[in-house]
Input
Amino acid sequence: MFIDFFLLLKNNKIPVTLQEYLTLLEALDKNLAEYNVESFYFLSRTILVKNEKYLDLFDQLFAAYFKGIETINTSEFIEIPEDWLRKNSEKFLSPEEMEKIKAFGNLDEIIERLKELMKEQKERHEGGGKWIGTGGTSPFGAYGYNPAGVRIGQESSRHRRAIKVWDKREFKNLRDDVELETRNMKMALRKLRVLSREGKKEELDLEKTITKTSKNGGVLDLEMVPAEKNTVKVLLFLDIGGSMDDHVELCSQLFSAAKFEFKHLDFFYFHNCLYENVWKNNIRRWEEKISTYDVLNTYNSDYKVFFIGDASMSPFEIVYANGSVEHYNTEPGSAWLKRIVEYFPYSVWLNPIAQNEWKETPSIELVSKLFNNRMYPLTLSGIEEAVAALKKKG
Amino acid sequence: MLFQGTENYIVSKDLSIAVNAAISLQKPLLIKGEPGTGKTLLAFEIAKALNKKIITWHVKSTTTAQQGLYEYDAVSRLRDSQLGSDKVNDIANYIKKGKLWEAFESNEQVILLIDEIDKADIEFPNDLLLELDKMEFYCYETGETIKAHIRPIIIITSNNEKELPDAFLRRCFFHYIVFPNRETLKEIVNVHYQSIEDKLVEKAMDIFYALRDKRNIKKKPSTSELIDWLKLLSVGKITGAELDKVLSGKSEIPFLGSLLKNEHDKKAVLGSY
Output
């Protein structure tokens, strides 16, 4: 009955599930909404929205749906529903077909047309030559081919011809709220747990109790110990911006998983290579710099340190003073990396680039050497290897 | 049987719909909101309005899900076995029932309040999924399945210290209590004190909202603080004229300590008056 409304919410990234939709129908069946829009609004909100951060979006969508979709202001919907863009029907074009497609026009024309289409189009679309969607030949959407196309929501460019990438948001703070598919990562990170016994004694120490009881001639003598708790401490250094934009989703996932898993966790951002400053807030990265020396002085050397970055840059950025692309650095990046690795014996580098491509980039090998070859791919198995490596000093 | 608030608890329409939906569809209701907006109180007021017993489970950082079900006291059984007590033969003597067991076992419908669920370990909500979904659990020691005779009304509160897992959220209804607007707040005040004169309340509320609007205050005063403060004002026989002085910046807010609970905020306010 309200399936369109449900899909509208889902397409705009409010995490609603079928189960909740069915619950809503059940509630309507029980006449809880009293045939009145306001009550229906409250009822659907309490059933479908589970976090206050979505309330605002829900309100907008609800208003839009019940007023009619044509009144939605397109600028509020720059994030195009991922559903449209899912890669489930890729259309492979032959070179002859590509020849046939002419460029739609210049960039301004394309954007104008896109805005028009966004107003018109209400449903997911695949193939075809006009609508926004995937695998088609219209100038909009992903995984298609048009020499003057606009790329929207695509993980990798198939033809590397797109003019403008809409889904790229430069220097965006890593979202730690994506809870998507991080469970596997959490399980991998969980192995890093360092369990130690501190605080109130509340568990029975079986071995000691047996020993003491036998010494006592069989009369019970109980011995208690504190319960085990995870006391591992973790530092994350995240490369952000530039070539790392391609891996933002993956890094967000790792960050989210780590944040969930470790109580003692702190993180810092850097760009390309570590230098004398790091920062915590990417939007204010030039105002709120933190000296890397301060980081070294603040955290004990028993912290487990993860560097996450593609380590892909010009080797100059690592080995020479003033090599940074962003500022004048008096000491080369390699000096800083060495300092970190020496101070934190438990440190590893996770690289989102596929391992078999590492050899092609000299800077990756350089960084890996600085890390005593403790560089692992940012995959599930890579994280597992890294966690295993972190048990030993580098 | 609908919940419409009680004589001393004003409930907005959205909240009453959320509560009634949760009751009739038998889902737990998760309540979030600023501190002091009456999250915990809600469960007690539902109990009062519907004339039902309430069982409260206050969650702490050390609370485990198992404690809500039951605890098996192996150590005292071991000790008793040394003393040759007869109790030892029946394991049920050493099972300590938890709040959920209590709620499930009850012969009438009860209200179960799980207060401040976000204080516990991150795994805590996940450990309760099946129990809240099916309203039953299995006791390994005695081999019995505890199943709710009558599904309790479950109210869960959270202060947002930790994100709750999606699987858990899917099973709950959710309501975020927003800070009441002036009209509602006045109704709430009236419910608590009929005798305070209107003008004094109006002026007190002016000061109160001005305080809430200050940007450099870390912990904004909330409904419960306003209620306490009004009580102090009336006990201290503060008049409307004195509050006028405060509003025009000529004197300090009386009993500021009941509105602002930390030094930083007090300094921030005193500095600006």
Notes: Confidence is low (pLDDT under 50) at residues 69-108, 122-180 of chain A. DSSP finds 15 helices and eleven strands in chain A. Residues 107-120 of chain A form the longest helix (14 residues). Residues 213 and 220 of chain A are 5 Å apart (CA to CA).
